[in-house]
Amino acid sequence: MEIITTHNNVDFDALASVVAANLFFPEAVPVLPKQINPNVKAFLSIHKDLFEFKTAKDIELDNISHLVVVDANRWGRINGFEKLRKKEGLNITLWDHHPLEGNIPATEVVQETIGANITLLIRRLKEEGQELTPVLATLFLAAIYEDTGNLTFPSSTAEDAFAAGYLLQNKADLELINTFLRPAYGEKQKDLLFEMLQNSDRGKLNDFSVSFNVIKVKGHMDRLSLVVHMYREILNVDAAFGIFHNITQDRCMVIGRSNIDGIHVGSIMRSMGGGGHPGAGSAVLKGAHPEAVTEWIRELIVGNQQSSVHIGDLMSYPVISCESTVPMRDFGLILDEHGCTGVPVVEDGLLIGVVSRRDFNKVRKQAQLDAPVRAFMSTEVVSAAPEHSPMQAARLMVKHDIGRLPIVEDGRLIGIITRSDVMSYFYDLLPD
Ligand SMILES: [Mn+2]
């Protein structure tokens, strides 16, 4: 007997991957775990006649000779099949897009870091010239959109977008997708979000704004990830973590969302036994104290920081600067010589202002040309510290509409970073 299964809390990518894998292994029985996300459940309930799934209970484990696992790579993520771990001679096929190694020893593996797992299966479908019905195209496109945040998550790749185009060509129905992907936001979620906002805390970790929120929950609660998603957006922090403590079941459900490169939620959650992507992830911890969980995430974030790039690595130095006592006449020569529009002003190495070409153009009288730049400089300087991230530098430039940022350490001017330094950093980072 052949089985296809996927991770618990079935999302569209998991469901789509099971359905697509079934096209390659038509004899296999598709098995869904018990917990299915509400929007996927809604999709299944109106497409009842088209799909038939079994649960692990219906399956005689001893009869399984071939196991196909999609959108997961760890035994702990696939419910009901843990016993197969020990089974000898079991043939395992794995299709997965989660970056880190799992613990399912597969005989045939397709594993790549890509926005949605279904994209990997679509690649094969195209190669084999498989026909797609509009229903399948719709389901597969919902999977790509959900897993890539409509192709906006940093994990999205060009191939995900091409696959999305291919599905639209095959008549994927956007109206239907909108119905299912528009996250239902109910009374329960509203109350929870309100409670979280009332108890919200915000702090700095490695210069990122991060919020942790410990909330007691009773019984089962749907769409917690949506609540955390909205929470992060409303607080406008770089990353937010909801720790939902279910006292009766003595477990903590941790859900994280991040909007920046420097905090990789997926790898944090993987360290805690869960999973996810750079921008979103979750983990369930049995018997853990919520405060200990919070502390653990803090440590993981602080530890993560080492690998990320700081503007100190990108800045240029030495900086063309100007002593505060230099007469405006000489400042004009500096401008002409270097073709710059503005220059930081220093006194004993300390940054005390900036003086621009515009300031120079204001000079009308001969006498003013003899006056020192300190008389004309602006003392309101926007600067950054070397340990800031490129993203923070970019935000400062946009906020103050400036093209260059002096980098200051202990008041001393140590470098400068320009808009194009930041831009080339971002674009060089794009996957090729
Ligand atoms: Mn997925």
Write a brief caption for the model:
By secondary structure, the protein is α/β, with parallel strands linked by helices. The protein has helices at residues 12-24, 38-46, 117-127, 134-148, 158-169, 174-181, 187-198, 224-235, 265-271, 290-304, 311-314, 328-338, 357-361, 366-370, 390-400, 419-429, and strands spanning 2-6, 29-30, 66-70, 91-96, 108-111, 203-205, 208-217, 239-246, 251-258, 275-276, 280-286, 322-323, 342-347, 350-356, 404-409, 412-418. Helix 1 runs parallel beside helix 3 (117-127).
SSE arrangement:
Elements (H helix, E strand, L loop, with lengths): L1 E5 L5 H13 L4 E2 L7 H9 L19 E5 L20 E6 L11 E4 L5 H11 L6 H15 L9 H12 L4 H8 L5 H12 L4 E3 L2 E10 L6 H12 L3 E8 L4 E8 L6 H7 L3 E2 L3 E7 L3 H15 L6 H4 L7 E2 L4 H11 L3 E6 L2 E7 H5 L4 H5 L19 H11 L3 E6 L2 E7 H11 L3
Helix pairs in contact: 1-3, 1-4, 3-4, 4-5, 4-6, 7-8, 15-16
The structure holds manganese (II) ion.
